[in-house]
Write a structure and sequence with these properties.
heterodimer, A: 224 residues, alpha/beta, Rossmann fold, seven-stranded parallel beta sheet, two-stranded antiparallel ribbon, 8 helices, B: 150 residues, alpha+beta, hypothetical protein PF0899 fold, 2 domains, three-stranded mixed beta sheet, three-stranded antiparallel beta sheet, 3 helices
């Protein structure tokens, strides 16, 4: 930083040149470092409100808790409902972040929750992002993979309408397949759109409430 | 990043908070005088509404002893490149209008306002396009009262 020139009013112009996006990357890297140090496999679960993020995580926690130390960080604008729904599933620890209005989780907020995790005993972490298919796309949490959950009742063109989210996803879970017909949804369109976006994009169909397809999700993530 | 925000914090609050902190740090290293103006560069893909951003930066400035600080925002356009053939295009403005067949293809290539494009390269048809400009959030400079030297 250098002093520039003095203006008429006696103030100076300071060159700052600070890249906020680069700062975001640094914060994401800080989380990545922490995960590496503690041997934690961390996943970011995104999706619209009601898509099935919490149901999916609850089912995964249940299936993994016998052999893994699983923790969950749930993110919402308000309430602790999502964290509470993890009760009885066998998680080592469940934390809830309330953003108070912000529409997405970011690496900085997540870090503050990470500081409350035990030093050891947790080797899998699911971070449930705020229900939103847009804003979370732009904020890396420093995780191993992003799982985007989309449900049959969000319309056939949901993928094309949210390019940033699905381009940033490593795995897409197509949930609520059991009600697709009832909501006149053609599940073929989202699958087609995802393949067009990235050949070989991993897609798993689920009915999380009934626990169907969850084993396939775990397999796709290399867990279990 | 953004602290636990109370009230009606919106999308821009987080960015405003970071901009303000960056300026405060810099001003602190130059005597800590009152901040008169801030210049930022914001890429269009951040979906930042100028007035919302200005609202929050102004509020933070007032809270921290620099009421009336001016925020100057320069918009950086969206630039997209095809990974296959190298074709690079830059959006002229945030709202692309469809006027001709060629323009329509270019508009879809640039993806309009919302995130990365879902369409194909207008030159070679490849779907492998990447965003190389439009995501920046840069705090360029700040005008600070020449206060006591530290």
């Amino acid at each position: 930083m250098r002093l520039f020139e003095t203006t008429e009013a006696g103030s100076v112009e300071i060159q700052i040149g600070e890249d906020i996006q680069a700062r975001h990357e640094e914060l994401a890297e800080r989380n990545r470092e922490l995960f590496r140090e503690r041997g934690i496999r961390a996943f970011d679960v995104t999706g619209s409100v009601g898509a099935g993020k919490t149901s999916l995580i609850a089912e995964m926690v249940q299936r993994l808790s016998a052999k893994h130390g699983v923790a969950v960080i749930a993110g919402d604008v308000a309430t602790t409902h999502d964290a509470e729904r993890m009760a009885g599933r066998g998680a080592k620890q469940v934390l809830q972040i309330n953003t108070g209005g912000m529409c997405h989780l970011d690496a900085g907020l997540v870090y503050r929750a990470l500081e409350r995790l035990p030093q050891s005993g947790v080797d899998v972490l699911f971070i449930e992002n705020v229900g939103n298919l847009i804003c979370p796309s732009y904020f890396s949490l420093g995780v191993e993979a992003r799982i985007a959950v989309v449900s049959a009742s969000e319309g056939s063109h949901v993928i094309e309408k949210h390019p940033a989210m699905f381009e940033s996803a490593d795995l897409v879970v197509l949930n609520k397949v059991d009600i697709a017909e009832a909501v006149h949804s053609d599940l073929g369109q989202p699958i087609k759109d995802l393949q067009a976006m990235r050949a070989g994009m991993k897609v798993v169909k689920t009915n999380c409430l009934a626990g169907e397809g969850v084993d396939d999700v775990l397999k796709a993530l290399g867990l279990g | 990043m953004a602290p636990h925000a109370k009230g009606s914090a919106v999308h821009e609050f987080g960015v405003a908070s970071e901009i303000w902190e960056a300026v405060r740090r810099a001003a602190g290293e130059h005597g800590g005088g009152r901040i008169r103006a801030i210049t930022v560069e914001i890429g269009e893909l951040n979906l930042i509404e100028d007035e919302q951003l200005r609202f929050w930066v102004t509020a933070l400035a007032e809270r921290d002893g620099s009421p009336g600080a001016e925020l100057r925002i320069a918009h950086l356009p969206v630039t997209v490149r095809c990974r296959q053939c190298g074709e690079t295009r830059t959006a002229e403005s945030r709202d692309s209008r469809v006027e001709s067949r060629e323009t329509e293809v270019e508009s879809r290539f640039l993806g309009g306002m919302l995130g990365t494009p879902a369409a194909a390269c207008p030159r070679c048809g490849s779907g492998e396009v990447e965003v190389i400009g439009g995501r920046e959030i840069r705090v360029v400079s700040a005008e600070v009262d020449a206060g006591q030297e530290s």
